[in-house]
Amino acid sequence: MKAGNDEDNSMESKKIEMEQKKDIALVVHDNKKSVFYNAKMKIILITLSIFFFIIMPRHVFAFGEVFVVETNGTEYCGDFKNIMFGPRNNVNLWMNLLSETQIIFSFTPTFEPGTTFDMTVSTYLTSKTNAALVGRVSLENSSYATIQAMVFFDKFGTVKGMKGTLIQNGVLHPSCFSSGTFWTKNRIQ
User: Fold this and answer.
1) Does 80 share its domain with 156?
2) Distance (Å, rounded) from C-alpha 65 to C-alpha 9?
3) 3-state class of 161 per DSSP?
C-alpha cells in the first residue's frame, strides 16, 4: 500500500509541479509581453512628448503684437526727383501682427479708422526662432505695397521683431513709388 501511495503521491506531485511550471511559463511569457508593451508605450510617450513640447512650439506664433515700424530707402516721384527717407524723416507707421496671414498697418498708434490698411501675408518657418514672411496689399487707384521680411521670435512664440524690404507705389504720394528696408523698433503690446 505504501508503494502505491508513494507512487500516487509522486504522480500527483509531478502533476502539480507540471502545472506550476505551466503557470510560471505563462507568467514569464505575460511578463515578457508586458515588458515589451511597456517599452513600446514608453517610446511612444517619449516621441509624443518630444513632438508636442519641442517641435510644436516652433509652429506657434503669438498674435496681436503691435510694433513701431522704421523705414529707410528712396522715394521716386519722376522728373529726377528722388527723396531719401530714414528714421528722421520717414512716415510714422505702426504694425499689428494680427495672424499668420494678416498684418494691419496704421499711420496712427491707435489704429484709427481710415488710417489703416490690411496686408495679406504668407509665413513660412525657417528655423525654431525665425520665419520668412511675404505680403501684399492692393489699394485704390492701382496703389500697392509689398514686403518681404524675416520674423524673429523667442522660444515661447512671441514675436520679438521683424526686418525686411518694402516696395510701395502710390501709397504715400500719388504717382510716386519707393523701395527700401524696414524694421520694427519697439513693441507696444
Assistant:
1) yes
2) 86
3) strand
